[in-house]
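Notebook entry, structure prediction.
Reason for the run: the old model in the group folder had no record of what sequence produced it. Starting over properly, with the input documented here first.
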Amino acid sequence: MLLTNPFFEVDGDFLRGDKMDMLNAESYKKEVIDKIQGAKKYEKVLDKLLSEKNKKSVIELVNLCFQERFQDKVIASENLNYGVLLAMISIEELNYGFENLFAFQGKSLKDIRDIITKIKFCMWEIEFDEDEKAMDRLMHLVIYYELTPCVICKIIEFTSMNKKMMYETMLKVFENLGVDLYTKVVKENYELYKEYNYG
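New structure, fully documented this time:
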């Protein structure tokens, strides 16, 4: 089953709230309150889907995260932003045929956000501090949470300042471990990154 990412097909910039009337204070206030209340409702729906821990609920989560009315609420919730990132990771995991999806690692968006935050900090230590033990900590997280390479690649894509260095580092690690599918996924994501950024 090939899933696509409709996130990039949306007209306008819902993250900036292009559809808001910011000149009228009352109208703006009402829109902001509506987005916050709507975001809280969507967070509950996503938490329920995550608690089910099955492929069907993950596909429902992906479909929900790319609906325009959902995207309209993303601006009001950091957790919903993590929901969109989770949906992007899930699309890639499903397309590569992974069975143990990242979405199964948490019972809520907060759980997912916390895991991603741990991964980000390890990656930043590798990237900026050149901390040799940071790679050990990152690999511990990969093993503990049974992370797919799709998770690692999306976090590199969204948080790394030196994506080239991070892709090459992770590629070397997975090649040395002899994990063919992980190496393949990182290599393909790295190639897409190079093609997009360097033509």
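Summary: The longest helix spans residues 25-52.
The old model has been moved to the deprecated folder.
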